Amino acid sequence: MSNDIFQLDWIFIDTIIIVLLILLLLGVKLYKLTHRWRFSFSNEALEFISYRKPPLEINNQSISTSKWTLTRNLSLREEINKKPLIIILRTNYKKRILYILTEGLSSYGFNVINLRLKIRLDKNNNLFDKALLDNIRHLISTVIDFFKEIDSEFNLNYLLLNYSKSSLSYTSILTDPKNCGMILINPKLNNENIKNYNDIFKSSPLNSQLYTIFSKRSIFILNNKNLKRLLSLYNHQKEKKLNIITIKKAKYSFNYYETILLGMIISLIENKLLKAKN
Length: 278
Description:
about 20% strand; 8-stranded mixed β-sheet
């Protein structure tokens, strides 16, 4: 009987055990990544108002929106209506980092509007057509006016937080009298956005109203190609003028750096954007 035990293929058995342990570790890692954050707000004072379809008709062939949501802190009503609201634009269906930022910013005392935005361009128009620029500003104004009907004390001034692959004209947004500033998170560096940055250089007053936050990495150890491309286009002096901020160890998803990103956004809003506007 004992001889049968020693005749087993222990190398094969050890290999199976190692493979099972690796699969277990990968499973735990995947579970931590997908269940690290709650799917409901932990702050019971937050009110979440959502519309899966736009509650108002936006008659525009180039711009479409979906999933309008408002998050507000009912325990800070007097304080929150004194602050400009924050509009978060996104193109993806769901992004956990934006969910985290929404809860954090609203808990801190901001009204937060989330919009899923899509801009469709064809050969007959481009990002900088006057009609398209006017439509973008009209869309933002329409959304703000809609939610003001829910809360009559709603602040009409806003800050734009853009985590979207759609290209927007930065100048058209920043010259809106109601706009208090714009923060871009990992923007995609295409030809339109490069022109956006060049336009900012031509208008010195707008420089202090635009900030860009990049993760140093994209995935794993790969560098963020959009950050690399932007820095390669400008010298050190212009880089400072662009107000570029890099979170060095963060990857594109900002996993494990969400709190740092949130703190950085709040600091930029309170210590840079609002002071520059005033």
